[in-house]
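Checklist before submission:
- one chain only
- standard amino acids only
- sequence pasted in full

Submission:
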Amino acid sequence: MDWISGIAAFNPQDATTNPSLVYAASQLPQYASIVADAVAYGQSQSADREEQVVHSSDKLFVNFGIEILKLVPGRVSTEVDARLSFDKDASVAKALKFIELYEKAGISKERVLIKLSSTWEGIKAAEELEKTHGVRCNLTLLFSFAQAVACAEAEVALISPFVGRIMDWYKAENPEADLALANDPGVQSVSRIFNYYKKHDYKTVVMGASFRNTGEITELAGCDLLTIAPKFLKVLQETEGEIPQKLSVEAAKAMDIPKVSMQHEATFRWEHNQDSMATEKLAQGIKNFGIDQEKLDSQIRELLAAAAPVAAKEASVAAAVGVAPEEGVAPKGS
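Returned file contents:
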């Protein structure tokens, strides 16, 4: 079952994209028309090949987002290129391009979350998008408490702390440790963030993500939202019995949790740097998403090269009959 088919099968409230998911889906024949439309759009926007690649990639992410929005009643998260994770202004510009493409397709920005890496620059980009442009954001690749606090102070809409990837790191460091259920470091991290947010009345939504087993999911019952892969939804669907609530606003309010601040860049970078797991996993996550984006770009580049001779032939025919070349070669849907 592919990513979008999984969404259709389980009817979730919201859904997400990322470079890995988009690249995998773009290889499947059932989505060939979505890819072709994105490539045609890229051709219509520029004569420069590398600019065409960028435009095509942006349109492809939005095209898949539109497909998802046909299946969910809520919102879709669309991810900004991970290679922009350390460039605030470029991240803002990319996000606004996505919103423009959605709005041209008749999708309001209220149904879109812009997904950004939880770097200092990504968090500041989200703050600008939220406060200046009214664009809601989903901060991903979140592994440290410092990242979570900075996101709350920036008043971003939602964060996606990664449960399974945290556990992966600790398991690799200590293979013999008991990391099941409540001992799972990923579960503990998300629980800490949830309790801190609720204790101090932050409005940012906590959406646990990246699960390795259903135990991690049930240990976070009561969290605001959870991103659950179709394979785990199927297991939960087939499991009988009740799942007790583990997290609650009332319990968090009763806890003694001091408030801290990450409003200064130097403080944020220092505190995040103290967490070896978080620094390694953030860097790895950005790198891996960047690799998948480059794979997607290479695929688009090949498609553009294959389409170029056809476009050249159409331009030649148009010139022969006296039609302006830019009119004669405009792809369908431009």
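Reviewer check: The two ends are 32 Å apart (CA to CA).
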